[in-house]
Design goal:
By secondary structure, the protein is an alpha/beta fold. The chain has helices at about 40-50, 70-75, 85-100, 105-115, 130-145; strands spanning about 15, 30-35, 55, 80-85, 120-125, 150-155.
């Protein structure tokens, strides 16, 4: 399946998708799930499996020489694929925790290009919580959106799991993905 066509003159951008609209992700052949960790993420990943995606989780420890290698190997396979990733998390949290990331921007942009070539998108999971990491994720996904469609989904877990369903929230100043 091909990604939905963009409106003329619109660049790839970041869009928001409410959870009830997760079936709208069905046209994508590949989704890389990144962002907030928690019950909301587990619900989204489970829903993607129900939509027919083969869900694969990257190892928690990055490959010592080439952090993007396991993801590239998964992308080389056939079929619909949802990867519960950690590559972008390292790009965000590495500098916050250790002062540097073990993932380079070149590796992240190569991954974005590979996902786009496989008719895919990056699925950015957020919460209403404002933090240094949330700001860094937003900056990273604005950059990646120049290479691959990015869909943002608020999983509704500020500071931890909540009893309510996730809500979508708009990204001000960022073009919507069409």
């Amino acid at each position: 399946m091909r990604t939905p066509p963009r409106a003329p003159g619109r660049s790839r951008g970041v869009g928001t998708t409410p959870p009830s609209a997760l079936p709208a992700l069905a046209p994508y052949r590949t989704l890389i799930v990144e962002g907030h960790e928690g019950r909301g993420r587990a619900r989204v990943v489970a829903e993607l499996a129900r939509l027919g995606f083969e869900v694969r989780r990257l190892p928690s420890a990055l490959h010592h020489l080439d952090p993007a290698l396991p993801c590239r190997e998964l992308l080389a396979g056939p079929g619909r694929l949802a990867v519960d990733g950690n590559l972008i998390a390292e790009l965000v949290h590495g500098p916050l925790r250790r002062g540097r990331s073990r993932v380079t921007w070149i590796q992240a942009l190569d991954l974005a290009d590979a996902v786009a070539e496989r008719d895919g998108a990056m699925l950015h999971l957020t919460t209403p919580e404002v933090s240094e990491a949330a700001t860094a994720y937003a900056r990273v996904f604005r950059t990646l959106a120049q290479h691959v469609p990015v869909v943002t989904l608020d999983v509704g877990e500020p500071g931890g799991p909540s009893g309510h369903s996730p809500l979508a929230r708009p990204n001000s100043g960022v073009k919507q993905c069409s």
